[in-house]
Design brief:
Layout lengths: L17 E2 L4 E6 L2 E6 L1 H7 L2 E5 L6 E2 L4 E7 L3 E5 L4 E6 L2 H4 L3 H4 L8 E5 L3 H5 L3 H15 L1
Antiparallel strand pairs: 1-2, 2-3, 3-9, 4-6, 5-8, 6-7, 8-9
Length: about 140
Amino acid sequence: MQEGRWAVAEYDIRAELRYSREDEWVRAEGDRVTVGVSDYAQQQLGDVVFVELPEVGRTVDAGEPFGVIESVKTVADLYAPVSGEVVEVNDVLAETPEAVNEDCYGDGWMIVIATSDASEVEALLDVEAYKQHIKERADQDH
C-alpha cells in the first residue's frame, strides 16, 4: 500500500515515540516519561482553548484520566498511558493552550511521569501499530 493512500499521511506520527489507544504519545527517557497528545488527536480536537493538568506529586494509573482538554468543538479526558507519579507539569499550557495545536510534540507536551513499570511503555503502540489504529477508526467513520 502506498503511503499517500493512507488516511494517516496527513498526520505527523513520529517513529521514536510510543502511543496509547486514546491518542497520547510517550517519550521515555530512563524512568521518566513525557506525555502529550498526538498530532492526530490535536487535529481531531481543533483549536485547543483550555487544558487542565494534575498537580505534581499525584499518582496516576495507566488508563486513568489525568486531565481534561477542551477545544472549540469538544471536551475530552486525557488518559495516563503509564502508571507512576506526576513529577512535572507543563504550566505554560494554562496561559497558552494553543501550544498543543502549534507543537504537540514539543512545547505542547503535558506531563512527565516517573513510571513505576517500564514494561507499560513497551506495551504501548509503536508507530506502525498506531497508524493502523488511526486507519481503522477512519475506516469506521466512513
